Amino acid sequence: MTVAGRRADDDAMNEVISATPRRSARAFHKIRVQAQGRTHDRKKFKETCETVVVSAHGGLLLLKHEVDNGEMLVLTNPLTQEEQECRVVYLGEPIERGQRVGVEFLTPAPRFWGVEFREPNSSSNVN
Questions:
Q1: Which domain does 53 fall in, by range?
Q2: Does 108 reside within a domain?
Q3: Is residue 13 part of a domain?
């Protein structure tokens, strides 16, 4: 899978997607991952969540637990059992299904999501 265009149900993310230059290409890719960390009130949690957008440097998740900006999470890809440490860098408005949470990997992991990303300077890249 490579970078794709926006879907109608992702219009709420338009400003997030185009707000700043990106270090790597992004793709709309739904995959279940396990997230673990600490909630807003410092309680440990582990949940299975879904991605909305992914990149070599992180992704946008839909979490049911409330977390703080800057909180550290560990994501596990259930298909490969690979783990990645990441930092919460964006908190969207809570919605019925959870909260959109942007995470940044501590070290780039382009193969973590199982997606092939185009080079960031590609003319067909989505900014």
A1: 1-7+27-116
A2: yes
A3: no
What CATH number is given to the structural domain containing 31?
2.40.10.220
Has residue 16 got a pLDDT over 70?
A: no
Q: What is the pTM of this model?
A: 0.74
Q: Which of 85, 80, 37, 19 minimizes the C-alpha distance to 58?
A: 85
Could you give the CA distance from residue 66 to residue 68 in angstroms, rounded to a whole number? 7
**Rounded mean pLDDT of 6-26?**
50
> What total number of domains does the chain contain?
1
Question: How far is it, in rounded angstroms, from Cα 27 to Cα 48?
Answer: 20
The answer to whether position 45 is within a domain reads: yes
Q: Is the pLDDT of residue 11 over 50?
A: no
Please name which of 121, 123, 112 lies closest in space to residue 29, comparing C-alpha atoms: 112
Compute how many other C-beta atoms are within 10 angstroms of the C-beta atom of residue 127. 11
In a domain, 36, yes or no: yes
What six digits make up the tokens of 81?
């059992």
